[in-house]
Each structure stands twice: as structure tokens, then as C-alpha cells.
Write a structure and sequence with these properties.
The protein is about 30% helix and about 25% strand. The chain is α/β, with parallel strands linked by helices. The protein has two domains: about 5-120, NAD(P)-binding Rossmann-like Domain (Rossmann fold); about 130-290, Dihydrodipicolinate Reductase, domain 2 (2-Layer Sandwich). The strands form three sheets. A nine-stranded mixed beta sheet has the order 16-15-14-13-7-12-11-8-17. The protein has a six-stranded parallel beta sheet with strand order 3-2-1-4-5-6, with helices on both faces. The protein has a two-stranded antiparallel sheet with strand order 9-10. About 50% of the residues are buried. The model has no long low-confidence stretch (mean pLDDT about 95). It binds nicotinamide-adenine-dinucleotide (NAD).
């Protein structure tokens, strides 16, 4: 198999997961690492045997690299993705696509001008858990979807992330940081949204870091740490979402989809795995649904969206974790905050084609039938 060389920009916390992904999918060849902090790029390259550790400029000028994987913090996503596109590369970015809608549009337009592909995390909907849910819904196992709920309940990241301040700045917070997992899952399962409403607030304005090495430092919260939203899907379903960094405990599910014939319990969308459960109309017992698809190893396949983009380039087909859906998700997240700030419903202008489902019975290394 011919490999596709990737260059990572941003060699912080999540970069190891992408480098493990490149070791898992044979089509990917991790070729270069770059970071504003050269020591981080060097350390990751050494750890994973990546041939080059270099500056961002050198990485972008390297003709070997086809896909730039943008693993910088959200505030740098647009700048780095635009630079990669300008350098003639395809780009796959960590979420969110950008902080502002204007920057999101700029990325999609620049890519269209250059004939470059834009991909964006999360790719978790390519995992066996969410692909099984997709198959069940598409086959009518729950009847007509009428509603869905999604809950991301947490107390934030200052207890484990080594440098958590960015999570409390605009472009992050619970909605922009974790919302993409939930909204990408929901829109993959149910399609695009036409209107949203939201309510939000900064509920715990000062955080104390309890992870190392910044233990004891304070973070002033600059963006809502509790965001709730309602959504009208184009297919008629009505959705409810809560994302929060302001709660300690909860017993709410991750995602449920309610249909005329059954309720589907969807696994954690921040994972590739199951379990998937269904409870049929008129029954009381939940049944475990055996997964119909593989690719459940979240640790070693986290960057599965990049692997799918590489296969898509090789097969000249659309890639699945695409820019149009990522922009739609970005518009939803802004929509919740706009609605809250303006006290009115927010129309959603963008739309997208649902990514093609994965075929069943694929070998773990493959993403095409
Ligand atoms: N940490 C996680 O568990 C996790 C999980 C899923 C997704 N993500 C996403 O991945 C992205 C990165 O998160 P992280 O936790 O790895 O952050 P991090 O702070 O650990 O690492 C980010 C790295 O990007 C570098 N960087 C920032 N701006 C840059 C620029 N302009 N050019 C080159 N390098 C630059 C920084 O020096 C740093 O090394 C974020 O978008 C985050 O939402 C993180």
C-alpha cells in the first residue's frame, strides 16, 4: 500500500494519540512534527520515531507531506489551517474547526479555491459504537426519530490537563470543547439542524488548577462554563443538549435518540466504542445490541478521521469527517450563545451531506469496502 505522509503541527497532549493512530493505520506515515516549542516537536518525534522535527515553516514547505494535522490549541486552528492550505496541503484539524464563524468560512473558501480537503475532528462517529447506531437508525429500528437528548456533565479539565487555561477561553468552554463530539454524533445520526435556542452562563468564575505542573494556579473563566441548547432538526426531531464544566456529579446518559418505535441509548461520543442499547416500544427491558462495526480502539485509533481522509485521497472519494459538517457544528455552537445573548431563536444557515456510513466487516486497518 502506498502511504500518505502527514505532518503534525502542535505536539502537545493529544499529539500522542494521533501518532499512535499513524502506527495503527498502514496508510498513514507520520513524517514530521512541528510546534511553537521546538523541544515538544523533538520529544514527540523521538518518542514515535518520526523522521523530522522541524519548524512550522519547514514542515509547510516539505513537498513530501500531503496532510497537515493541526493539533494546536483552538485559538490557533484557523491561522495554522489557512497556512497549510496556502502551502498546498490538505488539512485535518482538531476541533473546533475555528473559533469564529468568519474564520471557519475562510478555511472552507480557501480550501475550495486551492482544491484542498478540509477535515476536522471528532472522527469518533467512525467508531463501531456510533456506526452501529447509524445503521440501526437508517434501517428504521427506532421508527421515525422524534427527539434526542445529549448531556456532557463534568467539572472541567483543571484536575488532569497539564496546561488547562485554554479550556476557559473563548473557543473552548464546555460547548466548544466537548460539544463537537455530541453535535457531530447527533448530526451524523439525524442530519442537519435548522434552528436553535440557548441559555448559558459563567457559573464558577474562578478555577484552581490541581494537576501538575501548574498546581495551585488560578484560572479566570472567560467563556460560559454551562451551556444549554435546544435544536430543531430538518428531519423534524427536536434535540436538547447540556454541556457543562460546572457540575460534580450526574446520572444523565450521554445521548439518547427517541423514535416512534424504540429508544436508542448511544455510547459516549468521546469514544469509538459501545455499548449500544435499545428499548422497544411496549417493552421495559433494555437490550444490548452487538456492535455491527469494528474500529473501537479509542486509544490507538483516535485520529481515525485522518486515516479516512488518507484512504479518501487514495480512492478519490469524499472523506467522512469533513469541513462542511464541522462548520455546521460550529454554527450550532455559536447559535446557542447568540440565542442566549440576544434572547431569541437563531436560524442556522449552513447545511451538509451526512457522511457515508462505513461498510460492515472491514478489516481493522481498512476504511473502504
Ligand atoms: N488533550 C486532549 O485530551 C484532547 C482530546 C481531544 C481533542 N483535543 C483538542 O486537541 C487540540 C490540542 O489540545 P492539546 O490538549 O493537545 O493542547 P496542548 O496545549 O497540550 O498542545 C497544543 C500544542 O500546540 C502548540 N501550538 C499552539 N499554537 C501553535 C502554533 N500557532 N503553531 C505551532 N504550534 C502551536 C503548543 O505549543 C502546544 O504544544 C485542541 O483543539 C483540543 O481541543 C485535545
Amino acid at each position: 500500500m502506498d502511504t500518505i505522509k502527514i505532518g503534525l503541527i502542535g505536539c502537545g497532549n493529544i499529539s500522542a494519540a494521533y501518532l499512535r493512530t499513524a502506527q495503527t493505520f498502514r496508510i498513514l506515515e507520520a513524517w514530521a512534527c512541528a510546534d511553537l516549542d521546538p523541544a515538544r516537536a523533538k520529544a514527540r518525534a523521538e518518542e514515535f520515531g518520526v523522521p523530522r522535527a522541524c519548524s512550522v515553516e519547514e514542515l509547510l514547505a516539505d513537498p513530501e507531506i500531503q496532510i497537515v494535522v493541526n493539533l494546536t490549541t483552538p485559538q490557533a486552528h484557523a491561522e495554522v489551517s489557512l497556512a497549510a492550505i496556502a502551502a498546498g496541503k490538505h488539512v485535518y484539524s482538531e476541533k473546533p474547526l475555528a473559533v469564529t464563524l468568519a474564520d471557519g468560512r475562510r478555511i472552507l473558501e480557501a480550501a475550495a479555491d486551492k482544491g484542498a480537503r478540509v477535515g476536522c475532528a471528532p472522527g469518533t462517529f467512525l467508531g463501531g459504537g456510533l456506526q452501529t447506531c447509524r445503521k440501526l437508525i437508517d434501517e428504521g429500528a427506532i421508527g421515525r426519530p422524534v427527539a434526542c437528548t445529549a448531556f456532557m456533565m463534568s467539572h472541567g479539565h483543571e484536575g488532569w490537563h497539564p496546561d488547562p487555561a485554554y479550556y476557559y477561553r473563548p473557543g473552548a468552554g464546555p460547548m466548544f470543547d466537548m460539544g463537537p463530539y455530541y453535535l457531530t454524533a447527533l448530526t451524523t445520526l439525524l442530519g442537519p439542524v435548522t434552528q436553535v435556542a440557548g441559555m448559558a452562563g459563567i457559573q464558577i468564575p474562578e478555577r484552581t488548577i490541581t494537576s501538575q505542573p501548574k498546581y495551585g494556579q488560578k484560572i479566570l473563566v472567560e467563556t460560559p462554563d454551562h451551556v444549554t441548547g435546544t435544536m430543531a432538526f430538518a428531519n423534524g426531531a427536536i434535540g436538547t443538549i447540556i454541556t457543562t464544566f460546572a457540575t460534580w456529579h450526574s446520572q444523565l446518559p450521554f445521548i439518547e435518540i427517541y423514535g416512534t418505535e424504540a429508544t436508542l441509548s448511544v455510547p459516549n461520543p468521546n469514544s469509538l466504542a459501545g455499548p449500544v442499547r435499545i428499548c422497544l416500544a411496549g417493552e421495559r427491558e433494555w437490550r444490548d445490541v452487538p456492535l455491527t462495526h469494528g474500529h473501537t480502539d479509542s486509544r490507538n485509533m483516535w485520529g481515525i478521521g485522518v486515516a479516512d481522509m488518507a484512504h479518501a485521497i487514495a480512492a478519490d472519494r469524499p472523506h467522512r469527517a469533513g469541513g462542511a459538517q464541522a462548520y455546521h457544528v460550529l454554527e450550532l455552537m455559536h447559535g446557542f450563545l447568540e440565542s442566549w445573548q440576544r434572547g431569541c431563536y437563531q436560524r442556522i444557515e449552513s447545511t451538509f451531506e451526512r457522511p457515508a456510513p462505513l461498510p460492515m466487516h472491514l478489516p481493522e486497518d481498512a476504511l473502504d469496502g
